[in-house]
Amino acid sequence: MNGLLLFIPAGLLAAAPPPVSADEVYRPGSFSALAADRNAAAVGDVVMVQVFENAAATNSAQRGSRKNTSVQADVGAGKWSSGAHLGLGGGFDGTGQTARSEKMVAQISVTVDSVLPNGDLHVAGAQMLTINGEKTFIRLRGRIRREDIRDNAIASSRIADAEISYDGSGFVSRSTKPGIVTRIFHFLGLA
């Protein structure tokens, strides 16, 4: 019986798992502390972009010209004389003005699709929203610096080489476009 008791503890020791090293528990690239905020840093990570774009432009031109030409001739021979007067005049006044104002406020989550050699992140993403049959598309792509990311969010003004597009389709979008007759007149230069 004593031999059996010695045999059981020896079997338990032989079935024990091999020792574990700290390298197997901790991997520097995947560890985050319990209280740390994790910002996007690798391909596949998501970062939120706060889009606030406000642009305004005006352009005006004014041009005027005036020209007057006068020719006068008198012919005379003896008692006979004749005279002629020709006057030409013209004027032009032209003015033109254009004004454009745009404002866009949105939030969109984008995905890191590559990490550039200098550590910058290239991001891209799209969002589609449908409200009452009107579809709205927001697309964004660009390059961001890791230092500019705060609480895993970045302002659109901090994105380099930013391409932001906003488009829609539906009844409201179709209503803002000119009709076929108006487009034909514009094409022919009649409108």
Overview of this structure, please?
By secondary structure, this protein is of the alpha+beta class. The protein is built from four helices and six strands; from the N terminus they run ααββββββαα. A six-stranded mixed beta sheet has the order 5-1-2-3-4-6. A hairpin with a 5-residue loop joins β2 and β3 (121-131). The protein is elongated.
Give the arrangement of secondary structure elements.
Layout: H1 2-14, H2 22-25, E1 46-77, E2 80-115, E3 121-131, E4 134-144, E5 153-155, E6 160-169, H3 171-175, H4 180-188
Parallel strand pairs: 1-5
Antiparallel strand pairs: 1-2, 2-3, 3-4, 4-6
Task: Provide a brief overview of the structure.
16% of the residues lie in helices and 54% in strands.
* Spatial strand order of the main sheet: 5-1-2-3-4-6
Mean pLDDT: 77
Helical residues, percent? 10-25%
User: What's the N-to-C terminus distance?
Assistant: 111 Å
Give the class from helix and strand content and strand pairing.
alpha+beta
What is the overall silhouette? Answer: elongated
> What's the alpha carbon Rg, rounded to whole Å?
39 Å
Weakly predicted, low-confidence segments: none
Beta-strand percent range? over 45%
How many separate helices? Answer: 4
H-E string: HHEEEEEEHH
